[in-house]
Amino acid sequence: MRDQSLVFGEWLSIFHFCAWAAQRFVFCKAERLKMGGDDSGMESDDFDWNSEDDREIENFQSSSRLSVPNGDAVTGSGEASSSPGSSNSKVLDHFVAMGFSQEMVSKVIQEYGEENEAKILEELLSYSALESSPQPQQQIEPDPSSSEYAGSSWDDLSDADISSSSDEYGKVVSENVVTLRSLVKMGYKQNEALVALERLGPNSSLEELVDFIYAAQKAKAEDTLLPPEEKLQYNDYKSNKRRFYELEVLGRKKPRGCEKKIICEDDEEALHLPNPMIGFGVPTESDFITHRSLPDDAVGPPYFYYENVALAPKGVWQTISRFLYDVQPEFVDSKYFCAAARKRGYIHNLPIENRFPLLPLPPRTIHEAFPLTRKWWPSWDPRTKLNCLQTCIGSARLTDRIRKAIENYDGDPPESVQKYVLDQCRKWNLVWVGRNKVAPLECDEVETLLGFPRNHTRGGGISRTDRYKSLGNSFQVDTVAYHLSVLKEMYPNGINLLSLFSGIGGAEVALHRLGIPLKNVVSVEKSEVNRNIVRSWWEQTNQKGNLIDMEDVQQLDGERLEQLISTCGGFDLIVGGSPCNNLAGSNRVSRDGLEGKESSLFFDYFRILDLVKNLTTKYR
DNA sequence: AAAAACATGAGGGGCACG
DNA sequence: CGTGCCCCTCATGTTTTT
């Protein structure tokens, strides 16, 4: 049972969210006018996002689909108290205009005074939540993790600095509140509404928000969460293609006799990881898929290529896939390309015929990759592949402990010691470098395993710790290059690349090693050392093209993109592996899923991709 | 001040077995 | 089908060392 204080707490967090969103989203009317001006059929597809232009804010009010009836009444929290005499009816009118009952508003104003609109809003929201929530029992989460899930991220949000008291701030708050209220009135949970509004922006239409929530529900919901009639609405979704994918690509056998379970047959089903994890095929295995059909919306140009960890929390890949035009992910383990495992999912709209690998093929066992370890490798260590290369390495003291644990014995150590050593070796990816001596991989060894040139991340003031971190967050170049290889014959004169979350430039290196000329590369990467690494590589490899680097994907708005596109002549490929922090299993602290602090930047990948797609089709 | 070392499991998939 | 066991995971926050 959910008690009232909990509900109220959630509404509190909603308010904090609104404040946070007000800061985060600055509205972009100019873009909408520009794009919608020629009426080129982009009504509900044009997402409006950040812009820092003030005049755009001015225009926001009139353009909003979910308009505030009386904008003038919406004042910043600081202003309301300045003229108490006349503001009583004004404040009351304002909240009534937002859709609250006059009775309720005056009651709350009586109780709390009218000088603190924020407080009034809180109260109104909590009251109306209790009153109008259509199916309160439905908000009981059978899955206890779900509420925690959202809870932690909202805590983050409420920590956000909400000192802004500008006018647009007030508008944004009320705008969001109205939208949220509408959604809750429609029967959606606050959490879902919040997430949707956060992702799509306050300017988005109700339809878009509802659509988003559907997607999220589909990804998350268990059978028991939703009443059957609501779920039936999802069932027209892709059943044929999904089935084809499961049968043909994932090698999945559809068990007979489950026709009864119509409801959960397709969408509710968890995405199955292929075994072996070879996607549409890898150079070293005979199993291949040579054809797939893409959803119409996904067909390029431009081509896009998205990457993230395969073992994300449940529902994440379904959501990602749904945003990326329903293209099904290709799950590939890089252990088929090199000596280290790296299970990743890739969503792209590239052709998959006539792929070819980078040559020479890298060694695919530890012994081949590190011949010197063979001499010291004990017979009781059966590993032939390394585990996933992560962002941290084992410490020197750990390897010392292991040495001491072993050297007490003449022959093979007892099984318990073997177990301990093996566990540690697997956990930290240690290799044998001497008698009773294990060691973590060196930076340059990691570089080689991942397909980068040696010393790619070396120098320029980067610490060893940070090198491991940057490398651990990177692509495996051979794997990505194999997928991108189909571009070579399509673009003999080179490509224009938009590289988001570039990191140390895995995509750039892959294309370069494929022999695909890079004409213009726009590289967006937050970390300065990483940008330096890419810049340095760019100069060392005598690139003929032009490298433009930027810091923040969130600053890449429609205006900026249009500029870039007009100077570059359009992007042929948009690559991005968005942050996995909140998805990766190694994260004990904040594995919050796609809504996590960093991983939610996926939605910026989608936003930018969608913008480029629209701009590309528009100008061609 | 910066770099390195350390402490901190949950969550799922795969598999064998009954 | 369920259950138990094995295994793996693009990490974060704090403390210690350099």
From TrEMBL:
EC number(s) recorded for this UniProt protein: 2.1.1.37
Protein location: Nucleus
Gene3D superfamilies named in the record: DNA helicase RuvA subunit, C-terminal domain (1.10.8.10), Vaccinia Virus protein VP39 (3.40.50.150)
One Pfam family cited in the UniProt record for this chain: DNA_methylase
Protein name: DNA (cytosine-5-)-methyltransferase
Provenance organism: Clitoria ternatea
Domain SAM-dependent MTase DRM-type: 290-619
Keyword Nuclease: no
Source domain of life: Eukaryota
Biased composition (Low complexity): 76-88
Domain UBA span(s) in chain numbering: 172-216
GO cellular component: nucleus
